[in-house]
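task queued by scheduler; priority normal; single chain, no ligands, no partner chains; default sampling; output format set to C-alpha cells
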Amino acid sequence: MTEPLFLKPYFNPKIWGGRKLKTEYGFDIPDGKIGEAWIISGHPHGPATIENGPLKGKTLREAWHEDPAYFGPQHSQEFPLLVKILDAEASLSVQVHPDDAYAAAHEAKGELGKTECWYILQADPGSYLIYGHHAKTREQLKDMIEAGDWEHLLRKYPVKTGDFVYVPSGTIHALNKGIVALETQQSSDTTYRLYDYDRTDDQGHKRELHIKQSLDVTTVPFQDPKLDITKQQVPGGQITTFVKPPLSPHFAVYRLDVDGTMPFTQQAPYTNVTVLEGEGTFTADGQDYPIKTGDSFLIPNQIKAWQFTGKLAIVTSTPGADA
C-alpha cells in the first residue's frame, strides 16, 4: 500500500516577512521575519521533507531522484513545481522572472524560468499588487526605469481575499503589504529585482538590483492574461478551475470546496494538495488520513483513486505536459 507523502515545509526568512505562518496556519516557524513556507518543494535551495511512510526523512528532491515510481513517467530533470505560502508583512520588491530559455542561458545549470500564480488567502482592505506596467515600447520602459518614474510605470492592481492572479514569466509584479498568498510556480529561485523602495537590511545594506536582466526579460507591452476560471458542482462540493494547460503550460491549479465526501480518480502523474481551511479525512486504498488547516501532501502515482471527507477548503495542483 502506497501512502500519500505528507511534507514538512522549508521556512525562508525575508526582510518583508511576518509571523502569520504561525498564527494563521499553525506552522512551527523560526524566530524573526518569516516570509515564505516552501510547503511542496523539491528545489535545492529549500526542499520539503517527507514526514511519513517508507520515504520518511527524505527530502522531496531526494525522492524525485531515488524513488521515481512515486511520480509516474518523469520528463524533467528536477521536481518541476514549487508551492509556497507567502506572508507579506511589508511589500516585496518589484521584480520580474525569466522564461526557461533565458534562465537556461544565464542561470545555474538546471534552473528553470518562473511562471507563477497567486491565490489570495488574506488581503487587508485596500490591498493591491504591482502587476504589469504602462510602457508601450522597450525604449520607454528603459527610460522610465532610469528616471525612477515608478509612479507612472508600475500598474497597481487591487485584490481581495479569494482572488486568483496568473503571473507569466516576463511580468513585472510584486505582492504588497497586508497580503497572504498561496503561490504555485515553476520550481525556480530566480528573481530579478527592478526596484526595492531604497530600503536597507539590518546592516544598512540595500538589496541587489538586476536592471539589465529585468530589461532583457520584461514583456513589452504588458497584456492581461485571458483566464477562464470555471466552477463545477460535483458530488461532495465544488471544484474551481483557476488555470490549466494550454493557457498555463507548466501547471494546473484548482480549489476544492468539500462539504461531505468528494471522490476523485487519477488525472495526472501526481497531485499536490494543501489544506487551507477545515478538518477532515483523506482516504486512499482503504486507509484514512486525518487532515487539517496547513497540511500539505503529494498524492503519488501509485494511488489511482481517493476521496476527501469533511468540510474543507483545499488547493491542488498538477504538473503540465512539459514537466
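post-processing summary
- The helical segments are 20-23, 60-66, 100-106, 138-146, 150-153, 211-217.
- The chain has two domains: 5-217, 230-319.
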